[in-house]
Amino acid sequence: MTDYQHKLEQIRRDISALDAELLELLAKRQQFTNQVARTKIDAHMQVRDTSREEQLLIKLIKQGQKIGLTPQYVTQLFHVIIEDSVLNQQMLLAQKANPDNALPLNRVAFLGDKGSYSYLATQKYFSRRPGDLAEMGCQSFDEIIQAVETNEADYGVLPIENTSSGSINEVYDLLQHTHLSIIGELTHPVEHAMLVATDTEISQLKTLYAHPQVFSQCSHFLAELGNIEVKPTDSTSAAMLRVSELADPQVAAIGSAAGGALYGLSPIKSNLANQKENHSRFIVIARKAVRVPLQIPAKTTLVMSTVQKPGALVEALTVLRDNNINMTKLESRPINGNPWEEMFYIDVEGNLQDGPMQKAMDALRGMTRYLKVLGCYPTEEVSPTRVAAASALREG
């Protein structure tokens, strides 16, 4: 080994030792934030204190600048730390409010098998929950719902919308006819890559496997490929399994690089989605609704049909406005057997236990033909802490 190599190895050992220390400190910090959460439970305090978060971030940025760290680096790092802290505190509060939901084994049904985007979302969501995870791959959305309804699974994870391809209508239609409740949500990044089992190039490919939603989200890229056969599969994992089994340089799958690695596949091109910021929103369903503490930001999902008269939908939405309730999504779906009539799915920011939400629900029940609450659940979208004094920080 040369002197240069020896010196490099020593530096790498020092970095590894420092990384281990950082992990220990992060774990210790998490223990403190859990103590904060328990104190907030007793004091009935809100999870987030954005003014304190801003003050903390400003202080950290200034400290970082003194030792050569850029404000962007410090901000990005602590956004991740603050988000993790908020989500952990919310999880502890939710556990306190729903003690019967703590299971030693969480049987979770999701679309596809290991490596699918639903599988990755499932792993992400339940990583914060107590109990072991029993994975139950399903071949359709209907199979997921039936598994939970018949007590074969405790929970189901369903994709409901994507920033590129829009809403998943089949899931909305199924939600209308189930007695299950939405008890959680998460947003998961979808990073499509072209995955192959052997050394090959795009020019050699003749067949491409993927889920239909994936083809829709990557339509611009597919149009550029030209003469290539696309074959839809029931899930992303099924596409990856097929390519792995064929081990043919003329076939490829579209999926995540992390999922493909589980099947021995390698990416040859990444960032295939039409929109580079491509995310899917997933909902978590269960047989029993959850209670959401008022300290936690909550969403409520409703489905309703209005009376057949001009302005009926506007009147219903005005109820939300008058009660200062923010609507985050409005989706319409046709009613089977009733031509030209629609069912409306609505997501709002609000907790069913809160006064304004209760008032709005009473008003909606009196003016709609049909109204059903699909779920009230914690929102896991943690908005980044904003630093209003950023310009002053640059000067200082």
From TrEMBL:
Ranges where the Chorismate mutase domain occurs: 2-93
Q: Which residues form the ACT domain?
A: 301-378
Lineage: superkingdom = Bacteria
Q: What is its main location?
A: cytoplasm
The annotated pathway is:
Amino-acid biosynthesis; L-phenylalanine biosynthesis; phenylpyruvate from prephenate: step 1/1; Metabolic intermediate biosynthesis; prephenate biosynthesis; prephenate from chorismate: step 1/1
Question: Which Gene3D superfamilies does this chain map to?
Answer: 3.30.70.260, Chorismate mutase (1.20.59.10), Periplasmic binding protein-like II (3.40.190.10)
This one is known as Bifunctional chorismate mutase/prephenate dehydratase
| Species whose genome carries this gene | Lacimicrobium alkaliphilum
- Organism classification, top ranks? Bacteria, Pseudomonadati, Pseudomonadota, Gammaproteobacteria, Alteromonadales
Q: Which gene encodes it?
A: pheA
